[in-house]
Amino acid sequence: MKTFLKMLMIIIGLVLFCAGCGAAENNKNTESKTKxxxxxxxxxxxxxxxxxxxxxxxxKKNKIQVKExxxxxxxxxxxxxxxxxxxxxxxxLDVNDKINYLECELTQETGxxxxxxxxxxxxxxxxxxxxxxxxxxxLGRKYCSVSGDDGNVLIFLISEAxxxxxxxxxxxxxxxxxxxxxxxxxxxxxxxxxxxxxGETDGINERCNIFFFNPFTEExxxxxxxxxxxxxxxxxxxxxNLSNSQRYIQCFSIDDTMPQHVIKCEGxxxxxxxxDLIIESENGYMISNDGIYHGKIxxxxxxxxxxxxxxxxxKEDEAFKNAPISAFPGWLKVDGDDLDFYVETHKTNDSNxxxxxxxxxx
Length: 362
Fold this sequence. Notes:
- The chain is built from three helices and 26 strands.
- The protein is mainly beta.
- A hairpin with a 4-residue loop joins strand 6 (99-106) and strand 7 (111-117).
- The radius of gyration is 20 Å and the shape is globular.
């Protein structure tokens, strides 16, 4: 996971990139049809999907009172994992100072739907400070993490009904590898495995102890170490990290201290982050100043699949002229062809309005 926008953040500890979304009660959602503007280049087509509907209309319709001064929705989690269409989780404070969440998702009919997820009220009960992370696996199962009363991180499985079931990870405390470090991050590896990263809570990208954990049997299945907490996993449990030179993607196994192999990407920007990397099965995709790179995860080099010159973004904004990658705060790979994905981009120069662009091959 790796790139993001300027808006009022109302909760300390919420992160911008993670992903997923769930269903809501039928009487608590609003759908809005969108206009799609089709474009065609020599090798690609893309649709510009109009902006999302107004949150104020949804709040008024559902008689939700927002705390004064917090009328703008702050994005809590941008969508990447576990979804085939863009979906963003937003948060706000109500008049009772309770944190609430809204889901804004693009439907198959190319319309935006806003809903109040049925797990929002449950989060209020167990986590007054809100969620730390929120993720969805490929089967649609939702996970979240919160800070417990003792400062430890707790992980929950969110049921279809919106209830939160605690996943007991105490077994890891007894493993000598842990060395009394704190859980700093968890990631969904595949449908039966979570990766739990333990390190110093105030450390920055330090080496972490890692535990592969089955959330259903509540057992640790494998242990190892990572070179950093700023990494992204594939479904086999290998992880990826950007080299210090920012020119190579390094692929590691948790059994190794040296990378199994490296992938050269000439032109990766020095501001590229691991969240700009997407791994889907045997394929990888990287967005940078030169455009979108693509290749097999076993390749020694990736090349630009979609040049920046053919991508849609606000080229008149001075802030993006020297660093075009800043124009793309989020993106999502869709199952299917290599050239089939959604990219979020800024519409205006002040970066407050965003649009999604759907790219696909001819």
